Amino acid sequence: MIPESGSPHGGDDGTPPQGFVRPSLPTLFLAIVPPLFMGISDQTIVSTALPSIIQSLGGFDRMALVVIAYLAAVTVSAPLYGRLGDALGRRRMMCVALCMAVVGSAFCSLSVSFEMLVASRFLQGLGGGGLIGLAQALLGQYVGPRARAKYQGYLATIAMVASTFGPVAGGLITGHFGWRWIFALNIPLGILAFVLVMRLPPRQTPREKIAFDYPGFLLFAGFVATALTIIETVKRGAAVHSTLFLLVAIAGAILMLLVLRERRAAEPLFPGDLLGRPSIFFSMLLAMCHGGLYVSLLTFIPIYFALGHGVPPRELGLLMLPVTLGIGSGAFVTGKLINRTGRTTLYPAISLSLASALLFLASVGIETLSPWQASIYFAIVCLLLGSVMGVVQITVQTEAGIKRLGIATASVVLSRSLGAASGTAFAGLALALTLDLPAGASATSADISAEMLQPGFHNVFRLLGCIAAAGAAMAFLIPRRRI
């Protein structure tokens, strides 16, 4: 049995309610580790398979949609899972999330067109939006405050392994078996996770009344969908088309309604009282910049290696290993420095400034480096990016206080996911606008030469350099600088 277990439905001192059943530690971890691993690896495993996907299905100028569709679905569904998990039971909602993720993965592996793959990735993301957050919440449900910190450290290690595993496994699986298998392997893993989650004790307390900002949720989802549609419209060369102006007007109207709704909602999707605090507000913006940087790099670096240097899928995974290890190592070193000095925002402010300089240098001469030299170069960039999220979490949680810990942490996840989706979309736009592609949207990698790619990737790295500089500015602006 788990020591110091508690439940949010128990007493104020953390004691569990009458009849509360505590699972054993192996039972709990066997239940939450597979969903957590699936949710994190699904965000990155597709990156090294993208060259093979576009060779099979086409859609080079829209390839970022394979990543964006998943991230957008995670962004809009994560807060819904969190609130429904509080009200209806986290075990039940985890089962729902797993079912959607498995069904989405099955459709991804069976996709016969680029459009079907994007739609299937969105469905997969609707499930993925609950996997990570509900895994963390289930740990908090069954483990008391004093023991929770130690077990959260274990989950952080698993998260780093999953993040590193994704691109490496994606390249190796694609090279040996084909890109469809990176999705098909989710099916047995998801079914196993479902069985293990069902072994957890059922909810012991009555259902709560659901107080969720559904109008705000729908407006937010509509705004995200419209914004991504605008970016895709610009990609197709409709910069001055009437459709574009109509979409911009619709996005503006939805955003205005969303702001008005959030000001009046009793349980707003975006807690205004927290966002009104400068340390939290600038931390959220920093999280957005970090999400855009990291996911864009993991998405487009494999494309650069595959099409710019002709690297086969099997080697792509190995080339991405230093890159993915870089961010984990950066997070580890930053954690040690914070623990020793108490300083927080100093590290991302300096690191992102250096990362910005390196990305601007990449925009003028990265093609002169061999693939392995470029891999080490980007590993250094990601090492610097590793300084960000630990600082954001510590700052936001300290500012919010223990009573608002859950909603503050969820807001960080939402900000990072939104930044990842929008950053990847704009990076894809920067690449697509410089390419003179054959007519039609089904261009494959065979239609793209290394010479055609160079100006586009120069623009991508310039854009990411600007995002890194903006992130450094946000870190400098955070008032709380120590813990």
Automatic annotation (TrEMBL):
Where does the protein end up?
Membrane
* InterPro entries xrefs: MFS, MFS_dom, MFS_trans_sf, Sugar_transporter_CS
Task: Give the record's membrane topology.
Answer: Multi-pass membrane protein
Q: Where are the transmembrane segments?
A: 63-81, 93-112, 118-139, 151-173, 179-198, 210-231, 237-260, 280-304, 316-334, 346-366, 372-392, 413-435, 460-478
Name a GO CC annotation attached to this entry.
Answer: plasma membrane
Cite the Major facilitator superfamily (MFS) profile domain residue spans from the record.
28-483
List the keywords (alphabetical).
Membrane, Transmembrane, Transmembrane helix
Which Gene Ontology molecular function entries are recorded, alphabetically?
transmembrane transporter activity
The protein's matches in Gene3D superfamilies, at most eight in alphabetical order, are given as: MFS general substrate transporter like domains, Multidrug resistance protein D
Q: Which domain of life is it from?
A: Bacteria
What is the designated name of this protein? MFS family permease
> What is the scientific name of the source organism?
Actibacterium naphthalenivorans
